[in-house]
Amino acid sequence: MAPLVDEPMADTRDMYMAHRALRREFRLLPDLIWSVAPGDIGRAEVVGAHAVLLCRILHTHHEGEDLLLWPKLVERGGAEAAAIVPTMEAQHHAIDTVHTEVTGLLERWRSTALGGEELAGAFERLATVLVEHMALEEKEILPLTERHLTAVEWHELGEHGMATVPKKDLPLVFGMAMYEGDPEVIKAVLATAPLPVRLLVPVLGRRRYAAHAKNVHGTATPPRVGV
């Protein structure tokens, strides 16, 4: 069923912000793995926990699109959606294949700090297919979404992504996205949240990501490679 015409439509600017964070962190990850000396289990645990968090975010992000975005676009978007959604689905499948390879290698490396070359190579392949997918999604899918999904439906997609993140990690995940985020977009994302959340989350998010980045990247201000 098409959305009612008098309903506010989706504002997809938050997706660009999320994509910038994913581009940055997945592009930086192979070098982080390369930098861990064989057998340095302590450092492998730090980088490995970061990698696990990124993989969890990515999986849930794409799961939400599979469940809540593609079907609505196919139903409402006509020939435009019919032409592009199958490509999006095929790219998700390709990403899932590499994602499965990565997660299969990650836990062993995290606990032994051995096999880093193979894992770094797998993450390089994952970053390549992911960046290609996100670029096409921004070019083709997000404009369609703004025409065919309501703001409420778009918000449901974000809620799906947040539902699987442990509450203790929510400020970190938000801070990760905020690091290269537009202040106006951040404000819009929090607009419907209770006042304490609107006030506290930006502060806590920035602090949590700065501390996390210092621990993982060796600096509170890692390279801004999200564009």
Number of strands: 0
SSE class: mainly alpha
* CATH architecture type of the domain at 13-165: Up-down Bundle
Order of helices and strands: HHHHHHHH
What is the terminal-to-terminal distance? 35 Å
Uncertain ranges: none
What's the CATH superfamily of the domain at 13-165, by name? nmb1532 protein domain like
Rg to the nearest angstrom?
18 Å
Please tell me the overall pLDDT: 94
Percent of residues in beta strands: under 5%
Indicate the overall shape: globular
CATH class assignment of the domain at 13-165:
Mainly Alpha
CATH topology of the domain at 13-165: Four Helix Bundle (Hemerythrin (Met), subunit A)
By DSSP (H or I, 4+ residues per run), the number of helices equals: 8
Give the biggest sheet.
none
Q: Helicity range of the residues?
A: over 70%
